[in-house]
Task: inverse folding
């Protein structure tokens, strides 16, 4: 699975969790906080995508990631 496909999965999950945001409004290079993503939303999205990808990454390795593309890159490193 490519980084872009993973970024699309993350974007879909975020759009499902954020009531007032459309998928088209989620720029993968902008900070997720600036997009209105709170820590609870992010945890739920990360867990859902990791489940779907069948990967496990310690939260400590995800703490500094701010963008959808950054998260997708980290996930892509762990996908077979």
Result:
């Amino acid at each position: 699975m490519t980084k872009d496909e993973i970024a699309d999965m993350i974007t879909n999950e975020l759009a499902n969790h954020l009531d007032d945001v459309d998928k088209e409004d989620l720029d993968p290079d902008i900070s997720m906080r600036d997009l209105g993503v709170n820590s609870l939303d992010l945890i739920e999205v990360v867990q859902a995508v990791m489940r779907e990808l069948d990967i496990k990454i310690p939260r400590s390795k995800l703490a500094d990631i701010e963008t959808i593309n950054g998260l997708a890159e980290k996930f892509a490193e762990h996908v077979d």
Summary: The mean pLDDT is 92. Residues 16 and 60 are 25 Å apart (CA to CA).
